[in-house]
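#dry-run=false #mode=assembly
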Amino acid sequence: MSEEKSTGSFLGADITLDHVSKDYGRGVYAVNDMDLKIEQGEFFSLLGSSGSGKSTTLKMLSGLEFPTKGHVYLGDEDITQVPANRRDIHTVFQNYALCPHMTVWDNVAYGPRGKKVPKAEVDARVNELLELVEMSEYKNVKPDALSGGQQQRIALARALVMRPKALLLDEPLGALDLKLRHHMQDVLRHIHNEVGITFVYVTHDQEEAFSMSDRVAVMDKGVLQQVAIPEELYAHPVSRFVADFVGSANIIDGTVAAMREPGLYEVAFPAFGTLVCPGVRGLAEGDAVCAVLRPQDIWLHGLADAEDKVRRKGIVVDRSFSGSFTRITFDAEGTRMTCLLTGNGNTGIGLTEVDVAWLSRDMWVVPAE
Ligand code: ADP
Ligand code: MG
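#status=ok
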């Protein structure tokens, strides 16, 4: 009756990066003045292209690298100079790093045995973790006999069996094919819910970051560009870079003609005239800007009359069907744009000229550069 949830023994902590920078000695910052707090229990992702400094950030959290400047805290403890093996933080990598000569059970038990955890406790923990990752029946098998997804589950169990306060995951699903990756995303979410500790997840895949995370940090050239919940990043990017990086976007150049109120502007677009659009705060009259318009916010035909409706003719230049969506590329007033229709885009089939419409309130204005 009073049985505790089997995983109630995990205790997480928040992570603070206090103006952390890393220079590998080449005079360039791989990570530049990163200032960030990751909450206890959060599923937090670092999203950026290759070389943007994601792995370097994780290494400074795990102790595999030390910052050139700044401090790292786990809860209230300053761990900046604490060696990796004395941090309550563990990492799962893309290559599973399992010992091929040991069984699954011994692989998972290896860490706690090395820490002289009593045998009964080791057995209980290994059982608990193998159950959590649904690999109990493979306990006597060697890693070679397992699929990539199964090996990654064992790698997860091996990290979690150490009862870390935070788990770091560096592109852990990168080696898996798409279908398995989607399945393992669900598995990871489930495990995160069960153990409740802080997860810091690194990926270059925007959809993966969005579908799994409570919050996402977009990085570029070692610099944090924006930290927000996925919906906010998508709808209200702070820059053209972020808008482009998180999903596809129509980017339409313009100039601020006037500010109506903070965050609401009259913008002169050479292609479409002057429209009233929301945008980032702090823009001023005369600023070169661009408006971000998501493909699914453009309608072919339809769209009930609204005061801020923009309606134009589009000349279709391309059409690609990808299963759930049809992407239609068209030119409107000399501007190349795309829209997204669900399914096979029946309404647009065979047409070379389409009526396109959108709402100026769906155009989000950011600085041009
Ligand atoms: P990401 O994980 O986002 O691909 P990294 O953190 O691995 O990015 O790398 C960021 C930058 O730091 C890159 O320019 C990379 O070449 C450089 N870098 C990474 N590790 C080292 C290292 N050990 N020595 C020198 N430069 C490094
Ligand atoms: Mg990396």
